[in-house]
Amino acid sequence: QVQLAESGGGLVEAGESLTVSCAASGSTFSNYAMAWFRQTPGTDREFVAGISRSGTNTFYADAVQGRFTISRDNAKNTVYLEMNNLKVDDTAIYYCNADEWKVPGTAVSGRQSGDYWGQGTQVIVSV
Question: Most exposed: 8, 35, 42, 51, by fewest CB within 10 Å?
Fold first, then answer.
């Protein structure tokens, strides 16, 4: 099974950009569709963005469409989330998620998350 480790979170000001990464190990990365979710205290994890195994297809939540970009490098076993024009409401712990069959969090997967999670990375956006 795949192990996931996020990195790159931090404190930024509103309007700035930040890229978080998720490194995979333990299994063939290109066999997994990937997604980013985020969570704030007292709420459920919400889907942010997803990407197919080849990287051909990407999916975004309405709240981040046009500001965030998900990408992957299968040679480096890494998925990225580039976040631009960050807003205070983007403050959350960001988790990467993997599924062997369908892009997690999308209509194709029935909005279900995959079986594998990382430990999360904190993103704080200040005014």
Answer: 42
Residue 32 CB burial class (10 angstroms; 0-12, 13-18, ≥19): buried
Indicate if the pLDDT at residue 108 is higher than 90: no
Report residue 126 as tokens.
């200040």
In this model, does residue 12 exceed pLDDT 90?
Answer: yes
Q: What is the DSSP letter of 16?
A: -
β-bridge mates for residue 82, sequence order: 19, 69
Contacts of 69-75 spanning 24+ positions with Cβ under 8 A: 70/34, 70/35, 70/36, 72/29, 72/34, 74/29, 74/30
114: amino acid identity, one letter: G
**Residue-wise pLDDT tens digits, 62-101:** 999 999 999 999 999 999 999 999 999 999 999 999 999 8
